[in-house]
Amino acid sequence: MADGTPTGTPTLDQFLAELQRIICEQNGAQLQDYLVIEPPYRQLYTAMIAEIRQRYPKGKEDELEGKCSAALPEAREGADGSPWTAFIKFITQYFAFIRDVNVENLLETYNQLSELVQKCNSALGHPSLGIVILPTVIAYSRVLARLAIGLDKRPELIAHLTKQSSDDSGVRETLPERAANILRQAFVTCLNDRTGTASGVRDGKPDGKKVGIYTIANLCLKILFQCRKTRNAEQIFSNIYNQSPPLSIYPRPERITYLYYLGRFLFSNNHFYRAQHALQAAYDQCPPHRLKQRRLILIYLVASNIILGRFPSAALYSQPEALGFAERFAPLCRSIARGDLATFRRLTDPKNEHASWFLHYRIFLQLKNRCEVLVWRSLIRKTFVLAGQQGDAQARKAPTLDLGYVLQLAQMLEQKALSPLSQLDGGPGRRHTNWIFMDREPPASARYVDPDFAGTEEGRPEVLLPDMLEVESIVASLVDQGLLNGFISHRQLRFAIQGAKRKGALPAGFPNVWEVVKGRCDEEVPGWKKDPPRGAVGATAGRIAAGGFGPGMVVNLSGARPVGAVP
User: Fold this and answer.
1) 235 lies in a domain?
2) Cα separation, 250 vs 522, whole angstroms
3) Residue 342 has pLDDT above 80, yes or no
4) Which of 9, 158, 185, 382 could form a disulfide bond with 121, CB atoms 3.0-4.6 angstroms apart?
């Protein structure tokens, strides 16, 4: 039986005829609706699959491709003299996929779908007809991302691959990484599309394939964050920042999702001011009824702001998406504001009741390490209020603080933090009945001894507590960061406040943390492509919107005249 003869495969022939019509009309949405890959299939697809299995079983893919080529002259001949052979190969792979897929075997389905999406990406690259398949690329990418994340959550299904990877030499990409790399091919194709306007914007909307930039990028980011390969996301953010149209012209869901992942990426790389900037924009745009999404954004937004010295208000704690935030964040904020080093140590201990929650969202270490700086600032401020010399403006004598007082208070709080009594203190209403009778001595684990000298120490080893050198270093670091305003007299071991005559000792010596950070940071957020500046008009605005003359861009000056040359 000849491949072009309809006898024996009437449903397949009818399906190919419809595909030919869709390509002629360049109806991308209808093409996506036709190319279904997820079961259960409708009767039409069930009949077509049966025909393919009977007429084109495994091993007869070349014959199947010949039939597709004969039935799709629009793709075979292409447009503008460029045949769309990649689409014919994709359709052949599509038929092979629905013929062979077994959803009970997720790993095999993943491999088959990966190959299908790669063929789909190749078809997307056609300069004029590729736009037709973009909705299909996006739909398939969503399925592949969901499947990759599902496999990542079920390691027992890929345990043998992990073992093979450990046995082989070199680094082998994981299944989620492989899926992200496949999706990245489509992302790059959309990003580099030159079939539309130079700026990628037409009538205030994305033009051509650039419409798919953020949708596909968000799917890549979802996979990378799920499998904790966030470092691989840097290239995505960099490419978008340099080549994408402004984020503001894309649909709101895409903007929110992208800014959320950008904020998380910046947070994980310790760029907390930039992170809160992106997360705040995502939170402001997220609809109130999207509680799950607003809660996810708010977790990282609150953590970023606490590190920057901005604490949540009672109004924020009362929001429905902030349920449970007060019992987790409020004690931490109080310990920071009071300079209570002992309580801060207890709250940031891995054994604390809320530590697992912070660890789950990967904000525990940032809060523990970055907020300690603010605790020390508050501790020094409290010490100054209690024991500092306020100075005399008439006598031109600056307010000072004896660092010995800071050392005494710090040692007392550290000793308290190390004691079993403090470690078991769950707070009022949560203490053990015999709490007041417990030993206040630090546990043996707190008395560090270098293993090379174990057994040689005389008497009981001492607990490692802050000394004057450490206090001086901390104060000097706070001064360098702008969180303290003054200088240290290392000879007298005193901290002197500058500018007290004009502002007063406390406002001058202990400036607002948020204002200090804000004054030192730029509003520009790498990875967030914003609208061109208002002063840029015409061709200049177009070049900026297209990614030209911006950070990281290369400007060709080969045709530039020398300085002072007459035009």
Assistant:
1) yes
2) 25
3) yes
4) 185
Query: Which of 201-207's residues contact partners 24+ apart within 8 Å by CB, and which partners?
Result: 201/245, 201/246, 201/249, 201/545, 204/249, 205/249, 206/245, 206/249, 206/250, 207/245
Residues 91 and 68: beta-carbon distance below 8 Å:
yes
Q: Which residue has the tokens 């006598």?
A: 395
Alpha-carbon span 355 to 532, nearest angstrom? 43
Range of the domain at 227: 9-158+173-250
On whether residue 101 sits in a domain, the answer given is yes
- Confirm whether 39 is domain-assigned: yes
- CB proximity list for 368: less than 8 A, separation 6 or greater: 348
Spatial neighbors of 284 by CB under 8 A, at least 6 apart, are: none
Domain count along the chain: 1
- Percent of the chain as helix, strand, coil, to the nearest 5: 60, 5, 35
Q: Is residue 230 part of a domain?
A: yes
What is the token pair recorded at 528?
Answer: 């967030």
437-461, pLDDT tens digit by residue?
Answer: 555 555 555 555 667 666 555 545 5
List pLDDT tens digits, range 147-179.
999 988 887 776 655 555 544 545 577 889 999
Which residue's entry shows tokens 């949708």?
215
Q: Please, how many CA atoms are within 13 Å of residue 523, restricted to the half-sphere of its CB?
A: 2
